[in-house]
Amino acid sequence: MLEVQNLSMRFGGLLAVDQVSLDVQEHEIVAIIGPNGAGKTTVFNCMSGFYKPTGGKILFEGREIQGKPDYKISRLGLVRTFQHVRLFGRMTVVENLLVAQHRHLNTNLLAGILKTPNYREKEQKSLDRAAYWLDRVGLTELANREAGNLAYGQQRRLEIARCMVTEPKLLMLDEPAAGLNPAETKDLNQLIISLKEDYNVSVVLIEHDMSLVMDISDRINVINQGRPLASGTPDEIRRNDDVIKAYLGEA
Amino acid sequence: MASHNLKHALFCAIVTLIISYPILGFNLESQGIDVTLEGAETSTVLGVLLAAVIVFLFQLFRDNVMGSLRQLPAVNPLANRKPMEQSKRLKLESTLLTLMVIGALIWPFIASRGAVDLATLVLIYIMLALGLNVVVGLAGLLDLGYVAFYAVGAYTFALLSQYYGVSFWFALPIGALLAALFGLVLGFPVLRLRGDYLAIVTLGFGEIIRILLNNMTSLTGGPNGIGGIPDPTLFGMEFGRRVKEEGNTSFHETFGIAYSGEHKVIFLYLIALVLAVITAIAIRRLMRMPVGRAWEALREDEIAAKSLGLSRTAVKLSAFTIGAFFAGFAGTVFASKQGFISPESFVFLESAIILAIVVLGGMGSQMGVILAAIAVTILPELAREFSEYRMLIFGAAMVLMMVWRPQGLMPMRRIHIELKRQE
Ligand SMILES: Nc1ncnc2c1ncn2[C@@H]1O[C@H](COP(=O)(O)OP(=O)(O)OP(=O)(O)O)[C@@H](O)[C@H]1O
Ligand SMILES: [Mg+2]
């Protein structure tokens, strides 16, 4: 469903991403790994429209999306989280989830001011969806807290829930396990698998936690210094000499 | 640390001297056609010196002073009280509000004419502040040229009535819509700007509008302004002693009561009251609708908002447009109340005062903004004797507020949303 062909991104003299290709099929979890500064986040930024790539193509469901504005890409069903959590800190947890569903709501101002039945029904639906996902990530008790006051792990889960209420087709997670304790990482592990199994969402995942990556990924792409190094199933990657060298060389 | 404080304190004291001595220490005396410079009285000079000493001492012991100032909120008996339950609070709030509105409806019939007139002005400021609250408090866009939209509303009515004899009730929606259109158009060039840059550009817009009004003499009368703006009518009844327009009747004749100038003042007050209530309710609804949440989301984190499919353009423009719409409302009422407007009424200071109301009241909080609007408009009137020091007192009040309650009089409280339990 997603195909990235020879993607390149240059910042002045720095070629942060150089001819990277990858593809994601439906019902699949694909990981992108690589040492720090390899260009993983930059690939995400190009895919989600935050950067306009300097070369290459990105196809989503057969349509070229490179260079499209970020909010339009997100409306196509390609939604991401951030390496550093970005919540609406002074809004409550529920409100964070309601904001994300604005597209499902009637945008007619007058209907909203007058609270027409149609508007109420839609508002109720988005409340229900928010309630469902809060329950799913275990934040129901905190629904009316300000999002900025949550613990780090809870903020991470809320960010994923906020993506899910938009009913995405492809979810891009940038280091979702960073800063989580082992128990939380295990929960996250299960959550991501369930997103794929129960909600039919494909996932692209950037992660440094190797055990998580090896556990849940269907395929893995390795990037080193902006260039693609290897790709394949977890087993193939584990045995790949280049990958071992790159990681050992780094350590 | 101590030597640093000493140096800093000395510096501040000298700056105080440099600033205040030339302003207060010299007087211009005119003798015939000559103007001579004379030293002021000794008491003034002593006063300036004393001020410098106070500044010096304050800066020297600044940490202690500020520290003890910060302790003060703990003295506040309400500070440690438990927050009221949501349902109870809402009930209390709505009862209070209803009582307030009823009181405001009855009050003009017993109050003096001057007081009612002042209250109308307060209501106009409430409308303005509620509108600016959308732009600054909710959407987080620092707009320093808000007065421009107020001017558009006022001038729309003035010009329409002068050239086409349009009545207040027709001009009201036109003025508001035209102001909204200006908000939309002026919003476009500043879409990419944030913070300081946005503030500077909007400040420029405000000035451009005022200077245009000043210079398009043939249309707007320039600095002479436009007079003879009609009062609102009640179902075709005029409030003047004599009927000005063909086909209208006059209010006092229709009801067979003696003519009184007060009728008109009270009527205008009631119109302003109704419009202010409408403004408050409409914005309150908007805050709880997807647009309102989108404004706040954009204020909180623009990148995250975009990643969820919110269009920055649409969200920002809607905030500018809706804010400007209510300023247009206020402008039309203002023009009708004054009967005469000129660019003088729409200087930057107005923008600054409206912004001060929003900040003092508590960004995003409607109750706070309403209270602050009342305080900021009425206090200077009560302290007439000190009118020379008005801005000084105003500034001091702002500084004190920022030290004590940087979040404003009544900071915005998030609404509690009850969720259905999942089974
Ligand atoms: N906006 C930018 N302007 C200039 N250089 C950038 C920009 N964004 C990223 N880079 C550079 O591109 C390179 C790749 O960065 P990127 O953030 O994609 O790495 P990463 O693989 O996500 O690393 P990490 O694992 O630390 O998150 C880095 O050298 C970084 O300094
Ligand atoms: Mg990264």
UniProtKB/TrEMBL annotation, chain A:
<dbReference type="GO" id="GO:0015188">
    <property type="term" value="F:L-isoleucine transmembrane transporter activity"/>
</dbReference>
<dbReference type="InterPro" id="IPR051120">
    <property type="entry name" value="ABC_AA/LPS_Transport"/>
</dbReference>
<dbReference type="InterPro" id="IPR027417">
    <property type="entry name" value="P-loop_NTPase"/>
</dbReference>
<protein>
    <submittedName>
        <fullName>High-affinity branched-chain amino acid ABC transporter ATP-binding protein LivG</fullName>
    </submittedName>
</protein>
<dbReference type="InterPro" id="IPR003593">
    <property type="entry name" value="AAA+_ATPase"/>
</dbReference>
<keyword id="KW-0547">Nucleotide-binding</keyword>
<keyword id="KW-0813">Transport</keyword>
<dbReference type="GO" id="GO:0015808">
    <property type="term" value="P:L-alanine transport"/>
</dbReference>
<dbReference type="GO" id="GO:1903806">
    <property type="term" value="P:L-isoleucine import across plasma membrane"/>
</dbReference>
<dbReference type="GO" id="GO:0005524">
    <property type="term" value="F:ATP binding"/>
</dbReference>
<keyword id="KW-0067">ATP-binding</keyword>
<dbReference type="Pfam" id="PF12399">
    <property type="entry name" value="BCA_ABC_TP_C"/>
</dbReference>
<dbReference type="GO" id="GO:0042941">
    <property type="term" value="P:D-alanine transmembrane transport"/>
</dbReference>
<dbReference type="GO" id="GO:0005886">
    <property type="term" value="C:plasma membrane"/>
</dbReference>
<dbReference type="GO" id="GO:0015192">
    <property type="term" value="F:L-phenylalanine transmembrane transporter activity"/>
</dbReference>
<dbReference type="GO" id="GO:0016887">
    <property type="term" value="F:ATP hydrolysis activity"/>
</dbReference>
<feature type="domain" description="ABC transporter">
    <location>
        <begin position="2"/>
        <end position="250"/>
    </location>
</feature>
<keyword id="KW-0029">Amino-acid transport</keyword>
<dbReference type="InterPro" id="IPR032823">
    <property type="entry name" value="BCA_ABC_TP_C"/>
</dbReference>
<dbReference type="GO" id="GO:0005304">
    <property type="term" value="F:L-valine transmembrane transporter activity"/>
</dbReference>
<dbReference type="InterPro" id="IPR017871">
    <property type="entry name" value="ABC_transporter-like_CS"/>
</dbReference>
<dbReference type="GO" id="GO:1903805">
    <property type="term" value="P:L-valine import across plasma membrane"/>
</dbReference>
From TrEMBL, chain B:
<keyword id="KW-0812">Transmembrane</keyword>
<feature type="transmembrane region" description="Helical">
    <location>
        <begin position="391"/>
        <end position="407"/>
    </location>
</feature>
<keyword id="KW-1133">Transmembrane helix</keyword>
<feature type="transmembrane region" description="Helical">
    <location>
        <begin position="7"/>
        <end position="24"/>
    </location>
</feature>
<feature type="transmembrane region" description="Helical">
    <location>
        <begin position="346"/>
        <end position="379"/>
    </location>
</feature>
<dbReference type="GO" id="GO:0015658">
    <property type="term" value="F:branched-chain amino acid transmembrane transporter activity"/>
</dbReference>
<feature type="transmembrane region" description="Helical">
    <location>
        <begin position="314"/>
        <end position="334"/>
    </location>
</feature>
<keyword id="KW-1003">Cell membrane</keyword>
<feature type="domain" description="High-affinity branched-chain amino acid transport system permease LivHM N-terminal">
    <location>
        <begin position="5"/>
        <end position="107"/>
    </location>
</feature>
<feature type="transmembrane region" description="Helical">
    <location>
        <begin position="122"/>
        <end position="142"/>
    </location>
</feature>
<feature type="transmembrane region" description="Helical">
    <location>
        <begin position="170"/>
        <end position="190"/>
    </location>
</feature>
<protein>
    <submittedName>
        <fullName>High-affinity branched-chain amino acid ABC transporter permease LivM</fullName>
    </submittedName>
</protein>
<dbReference type="Pfam" id="PF11862">
    <property type="entry name" value="DUF3382"/>
</dbReference>
<dbReference type="InterPro" id="IPR021807">
    <property type="entry name" value="LivHM_N"/>
</dbReference>
<dbReference type="Pfam" id="PF02653">
    <property type="entry name" value="BPD_transp_2"/>
</dbReference>
<dbReference type="InterPro" id="IPR043428">
    <property type="entry name" value="LivM-like"/>
</dbReference>
<keyword id="KW-0472">Membrane</keyword>
<feature type="transmembrane region" description="Helical">
    <location>
        <begin position="147"/>
        <end position="164"/>
    </location>
</feature>
<dbReference type="InterPro" id="IPR001851">
    <property type="entry name" value="ABC_transp_permease"/>
</dbReference>
<feature type="transmembrane region" description="Helical">
    <location>
        <begin position="44"/>
        <end position="61"/>
    </location>
</feature>
<feature type="transmembrane region" description="Helical">
    <location>
        <begin position="197"/>
        <end position="213"/>
    </location>
</feature>
<feature type="transmembrane region" description="Helical">
    <location>
        <begin position="90"/>
        <end position="110"/>
    </location>
</feature>
